[in-house]
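hi! just following up on the protien thing from before. the input was this:
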Amino acid sequence: MNRSRTKSSIRDEASYWVIHMSSDDATDDDHEQFKTWLAADPLHESSYRAAESVFNDFTELKHLRQERPLESNSTPMPDRVAAVEGSKPQPYPALTRRTVSLASAIAASVIVAAAVGWLLVSDRLAISPQRYETALAETRAVSLPDGSVVTLSGKTVINVAFDKSARSVSLQSGQAFFEVAHNERLPFVVTAGEAIVHVVGTKFDVRIGPEAVGISVLEGKVRVASASENKFAPVADGAVDDTKVLIAGQKISAQNSGDLTPIQPVSVDKPGAWRDGMLIYEDAKLLDLVADVNRYYSGGIEFADNDISDLRVTAAFRPNQIDQMLQTLTRAYPLQARHDGSGRIVLGRPAEQR
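and the predicted 3d structure came back as:
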């Protein structure tokens, strides 16, 4: 087959067959011709399925009925469009050759226009892999071609790649807040450590910590799966296997082992509060607090005694208030902080407790 015609002729032929084979006017000979056309080239079937999918989206065309057969000189009128009765599609009416030709021409133009429109949109959104990175203590908002915005925390790295099947972002390190533009045709997928987050349009936060990836939702709904499983049911069917569905005000963690923790309510402020310059922790591991501080504080904090990293703490502070935060922690918890002369802060137990 001449490949130069695949983008136009095959699509037109596919549109014709979608309409013609849906009518009661198709003869046995037509069915045989359709089978022959379908088998002639692998592109025929894929083009037919694409045209059929777009055609089915126009449900009005699926529910056209006639109270009586059209005469050869009849003209379809608006009152021939019937309301949908129940959830099952009504049968197609018996159509004349003339009507099929007219319907095929009209529907083909609609299908081709829709298909071409979607191809143009998806082509516009498609981007080769790009890397975005922030420096220490830097916050940066990245606008993506689909209208989504990703805000990066300090020392954060993401890789972005859009194609015709998905909008993909890989969070390599740090923390990012996602404001995803709604697009049911093109899911937005975030991978981070052992977590895969699947959304259509929503606002949520993803943070890579030392022991787990944390996901919390501000608006909408997200579905989270373990990267080791990577199982997602169709959006309309909800979750299966270990997939978890989170709504606004909920959070979950994907452990480095691949296990997902139970869904919990977000108990402090709102997801992504760090964008407003506040780091907030409630009953959090000291290990996680220090990991976040080290994306803002140039000297860095390290542990003199590793066993204190599991200490649960509650704190709220701004990134430029590290010294005040440490003073508060050492008063409230059995901790001691000292500067080692190089700008680094060492956290350990008080001398009398060693």
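The CA atoms of residues 82 and 252 lie 48 Å apart.
Residues 3-124 form one domain.
cheers
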